[in-house]
Every structure is written in C-alpha cells, then in structure tokens.
Amino acid sequence: MKATFLTLLISAVYLVHQDCWNWKISDPLIFGFLPIGLAYHAGYSILCAILMAILVKFAWPSHLERAQDEPPPQNPPSNH
Amino acid sequence: MIPLTVICLYLVAIAIIGSFAFRRSQANTEDFFLANRGVGSMVFFLSLFATNMTAFAILGSSGQAYRQGIGIYGLMASSSCFLIPLTIFFIGTRLWAIGKRFGHQTQVAFFRDRWECDAIGTLIFVLTVVMLVPYMIISIMGGGRVLADISKDMVSYPLGCAIVALVVTVNVFFGGMRGTVWVNILQTSMFLIFGAIALAVISHNLPLGFGEYIHKIAANPKTKFLVTRERMSESYFWSYTFIPLSSIMFPHMAIMCFAARRVTAFKRTVVLYPLAIMAIWLPCIFLGVIGAFLKPGLAKPDGVLLVMLSDYAPPILAGILGAGIISAVMGSDTHQVLALSTMFTKDLFAHYGGKDKYGERGSVYFARAFILIVTVVAYIIALLTRETIFELAVRFAFSGFAAMGPVMIAALFWKRSTKYGALASTLWVAAWLVLTWYLQKISDVSAPKPGAPPFIIFPELANVGLGHLFERTSANVTVFGFLPVVPMVLGSAVCMIIFSLLTRPPTQPTIEKYFSKQTSETLSARTVSESKGIAVASNESAGMPRTPNASRGSGAV
Predict the structure, then answer these.
(1) B227 to chain A, minimum CA–CA distance in Å?
(2) Which residue of A has its CA nearest to B267?
(3) Which residues contact B39 (CB under 8 A, 6 or more apart)?
(4) A20 falls within a domain
C-alpha cells in the first residue's frame, strides 16, 4: 500500500513537470518580478525537496545501514 | 586588478588546503581515492554537489537563458531537481553499501564482479573514459576562459588554463579524495551564495526594478519569448527529463557515493539537493534574461553574467563572485581528474596485476603519476583544440551516460540481468553516439536559425513514412521531434531485458552475494569472525563458495 502510494506520488511529481498550461504566458508576475513559468518551476524545485523528505521518512532503505557496522575493506595502511 | 587579486588569493587557499590533506594521507588506495570511506554527512552533501555542478550551472545557464529565456530553468534545472536526488536515493545508497561490503571503488569493478566478466567491465571502462575525458578538458578550457574574461585579458587564455590545471593537479596529487572534499566545502559554500549575492547587488545598482524590466521584455514581441516558452517545443522539453539520469552514471559522482562514512549521509543530501540547485540556477537564469534585455547582441552570451558583474558590482565583490565561478569550475574538475585516476589505477593497473607486483604504495604512486600526465595532456589539448568540439562531445556524453542508467539499475535491482544484456546495452549506446555525431556533422551546414522550424535530414525517408525520423533544430539532431537521449535510454533498457532473458543468468553464488539476505547474514558472521582473527572453515558448510571479495563483507543490497 505504502509502496503503491509512493510510486504514484513520484509519478505525479514527474508528470506535473510538464506544465503545458504555462507555456505561452508570462503573467502573473510572482512577487512582482518572476514570470509565472519560472516561478512555477522554482516551486517545483521545492516540491522535489518535499518529495525527497517524504521518501527519506517513509521509504528509507534502512537494511543498508547494517553495512555501516561492518569493518571497512582494509588495505594495509602505511603512513608517509 | 582587484578581482584578479581576490581570485589569486582564493587559488592559493585551495592549494594550501590540498597540502594539509596530504599530511593526513596514508599510502593506500582506499585512503587516496575514497578518504578511507569516511566522508561525513554535511561534507558529503557539499562535495557531491560540487562534483555535479560545473561552471555551466553559473555561466552556461545564464548564457542559455540569454538565448532561450526562462524555459531553461524547467528544461535543465527543475528536471535535475527531480531526477538527480531520486537516483542518489535509489542508486547512490546501493552503490555505497556495495562498496562498503565488497570493497569496490569504481562502477567497473562492481560490473565485473556482478556479471562475472572482465570484458564487459573493460568495454564499459572504455566507453566511460571516452565520454569523461572531453568533459575534463572542457572544464580546464572553461576555467581558462573565465580567468581571461574576469581579468579582462590581463591573464591570457593559455595562462588561465595553466593556472586552473596546476591548482587542480596540486590539489588532487597531494590531497587525493580528502583534499578534494575539504576544498569542496569552501567551493560549494562560495558558489551556493553566488547567485543570491549577484542578484542583490545587480538589483541594487540597476536604474529600474526587476519587475519593470520583465514587463518591458513581455511587452515587446521580439523579446517576449524570453519570459515564456513559446519557442521551445514540448517534446524537446520532455526529452530533457531523461538527461539528469546521466548524473549518477558519471564516474566521479558514483565514486563520491562510495566515499560516504555512513549511508545516513545520503538523507540530508537528497533533501537539500533540489534546494541547492535552485539556489544557483534560479538567479543565474533570471539574470541571463535581464541581461538579454540590457546587453543585447553579446558575441559571447555565456559571458553575460561577467559583463553584468563588471558593470553593476563593485570590483572587490566582482572578484569574490568571480572566485565563486572558478569554484564551480574546479570543484567538478578535481573530481573528474581523481575519478579518471581511480579508474585507471583500479580498473586497469591493479586489475591486470600492477597491484600484486607493486603493492598498495605502488598503486598510489601510479595514481599520482597518472594525475600529472593526464592534466598535462589535457592542458595541451585545451590549447590546441577548438572549444566547440568538446562542447559537442560533452553534450553527447550526457546522453551516453543517461543511456547507461538502465545497465546500473539492472545490475543493482534485477537478479536475472546478464553480461550479455549489459553488453547489448553498451553497444546500443556506443552505436547511437556514433550515429548522432554523424547526423550532427552532416546537418551542421543546413542547421536552421534559432526559432526557425527544424530541417529534415533525410527527405527521401518520407517515401516510407519516416520523413520526421531525423530532423535538425538549430542546436540538436532530433528523432521524431525528441532528443536522441529518449531512444537511447529506452533502447538500452529494452536491450538489457531481451538479451538478459535470452542468455544464462550469473551463477547462484554471485546472485546470492548481491541479493540473498541469508547469504548476507552468513557473510556478516564470517566477517566478524575473521576480524577477530578466527579462522573460519564454515564457508563451504554454509553452502557458499569463496569468492575473491567475499571476505570483505556481505549482504543483500
């Protein structure tokens, strides 16, 4: 269930990148100077950060953390 | 003069940091290439970002915005905000775990072991080097060009290239990965704040507000395209979402993933990554558009930010901002040189017996000698060759690395994938690179001007209904209106699937090594025992044959 929801979420974020509705317009200017097409994608960047935070929270590959506790592959160290 | 002095001070600081790193170094490849896999969380983020971002993020982005307008942000930056952190999350973390458990230091070493085949690793090595070397050379060229522009030719282009090559060499030669990541802390901090400072300073010194300029640009039919995407086709825009898949496949990015101390370092990195991309690209693209209005007709649009800084910023600030640009150049260049050195040392020298003959210390000497040679050769090529040749090669390299993405995904997530699948994918990518290069060359003379409709390369194909198969826009060859990266990535995935299903899978021990949890636990137990000096004879009794790297770690990744 969780995997399905996250897959759909990732797909949805990918789809809204293609903002065809903003293609030929520049108004309104967000904050009085950012054309809508640019402001939309700035917002999209923030959305991507939120998506990644959600993935870290709910889909973190915690099984990989076991490798942290294993001794590193050692080469014979020798100082200069 | 002031900007040049600030930049020189910055370059000296970088060389000093490299020499400090040298004092901490050990004479083994694990330390030299990966800083003993001990890079902490925040440093990992700063360093990975510096590895990824080149001068293009500052100069190229503003130059492209000068030519094409705001659409460049969605095209290149926000698509990267989506895909790069995603690939770091799914692929980077797995690479880290594999490196930690089995001791791999390069992608090629992993591919060789995963598919039990030297040849496939060597083939991918060759393709990777062919695609990476132009990138490294163009970084040196870019650095030389920036130094010459900022100093208003007080530093000549050849001298600028020499300075960049020298500082990079000193930093990597002495410091290895440790020196590189330490320098990255300074570099990334500088170019992350570059955009905000540039925007604030230039805004303060302009006679009108930004909003008024944007209104004027939008009101003029000749410049309106700069604040919309009316000259950008939707298929072209969509095609570009495949390009950021290349990021994790660049060897310097993958090798950085091996260097993290803990996998948790990736958590902060993937969340901050889109915000960091925005912090650099958004102001640069916006200023590029404003620059197109204020400084029309520049012969070198990529220099628009330098022109605006020179006209609207005090000299000392222009110097600091110039150092920010140089940071972006060298941050990635040092990692590219180090990655090439790592690959030649581990995938060729050590793999074909050099390490057995000369030991770890000998491998590090080889790596350092290689760094010297490769930067000298790159410098000479940078002086003798036109920049456009490498610009083209680098554009192809992004498509090529993106199309190798399915190979990595299959290696990590698909047990059934085989060396023949990987071979077919790699040959597919190589063939497309050659084809695209050829089509680009034969269509150069008839390339349409920006904004004009595309030109059909083979009109005779219209007879069989394939008239739009290959077209040429002002800058690119397209395939049915899409960038070549689309058929390259999709075809690579199809090749991997079909040829893997048609051929014999890797042996069970290899599959268990990389995918089985039971094997993971057994190997873990053995690793702990071996670390205590206990001879373990239970390998065979656990039903698991000894593999060359097995004693180093374990696990389903």
Answers:
(1) 6
(2) A56
(3) B47, B177, B181, B259, B260, B261, B265
(4) no
Q: Is B264 in contact with A65 (Cβ distance < 8 A)?
A: yes
Cα(B405)–Cα(B386) distance, integer angstroms: 30
Q: How far apart are CA B495 and CA B514, in angstroms?
A: 22
What integer pLDDT is reported at residue B500 of this predicted model? 97
Q: Is there a contact between B30 and A37 if contact means CB atoms under 8 Å apart?
A: no
For residues A14 and B241, the answer to whether their CB atoms sit within 8 Å is yes
Q: How many domains does chain A have?
A: 1
B93–A61: do the CB atoms touch at under 8 Å? yes
Name which of A19, A53, A65 is nearest B263 (Cβ-Cβ). Answer: A65
Write out the two tokens for B51.
Answer: 């590895």
Digit-coded pLDDT (tens) for B143-177: 888 788 777 788 888 998 888 888 888 888 888 88
ipTM above 0.85, yes or no: yes
Q: Minimal Cα distance from B361: which residue of A?
A: A78
Closest chain A residue to B87, measured at CA: A52
C-alpha–C-alpha distance, residues B365 and B338, integer Å: 13
Q: Examine residue A6 and state whether it is found in any structural domain, yes or no.
A: no
Tell me if A67 and B209 make a contact (CB, 8 A cut-off): no
Which residue range forms the structural domain that includes residue A47? 25-60
Residue A38 is assigned to a structural domain of this protein: yes
pLDDT in tens, A33-62: 999 999 999 999 999 999 999 999 999 998
Banded model confidence at residue B424, pLDDT cuts 50, 70, 90: very high
Does any domain span residue A18? no
